[in-house]
Design goal:
- This is Competence protein ComG.
- InterPro entries: ComGD.
- It comes from Pontibacillus halophilus JSM 076056 = DSM 19796.
- By secondary structure, this protein is an alpha+beta fold.
- It has 1 helix and 8 strands, in the order αββββββββ.
- The longest helix is centred in the first third of the chain and has 50 residues.
- It is elongated and about 75 Å long.
């Protein structure tokens, strides 16, 4: 009987620890993805200005790719538990030679009920993230 109680407590503690650990891992993955996306968007905007070329970022279900004109510069994976919805923003995101987004708007990034909104305002100002 005492062994059953000890085993029950041990199994319960372990299962709670694993569950909390997985939640923290998912949250960290989402934060890292959003940070990488922010860095890429800012870099693309700055490259558009510095190089006087238009750039675009195209999103698919499982990745996004950065292009300079028709040349693909790089591609990044979107975590499988993360989804991206374009609300008023269009896909792909275009920056012209002056670093201005061509069609401003918003998009949502979701992961297990957590949502972040990326807002791309008119003009050449920087986008921002609303948690």
């Amino acid at each position: 009987m005492e062994m059953s109680v000890v085993l029950f407590i041990l199994i319960t503690t372990l299962s709670l620890t694993v569950h909390i650990g997985l939640q923290l891992l998912d949250k960290q993955r989402l934060n890292l993805f959003i940070q990488q996306l922010e860095d890429d968007l800012l870099a693309v905007q700055q490259q558009s200005i510095a190089e006087s070329h238009y750039h675009r970022i195209y999103f698919s279900k499982d990745a996004y790719a950065v292009y300079q004109g028709t040349k693909k510069l790089y591609e990044r994976e979107i975590p499988s538990s993360t989804s991206i919805r374009f609300l008023t923003l269009t896909n792909p995101i275009h920056y012209n030679e002056s670093g201005t987004i061509q069609k401003p708007g918003t998009m949502k990034i979701s992961n297990h009920g957590k949502e972040h909104t990326l807002v791309f305002p008119f003009g050449s100002s920087r986008f921002y993230v609303k948690p």
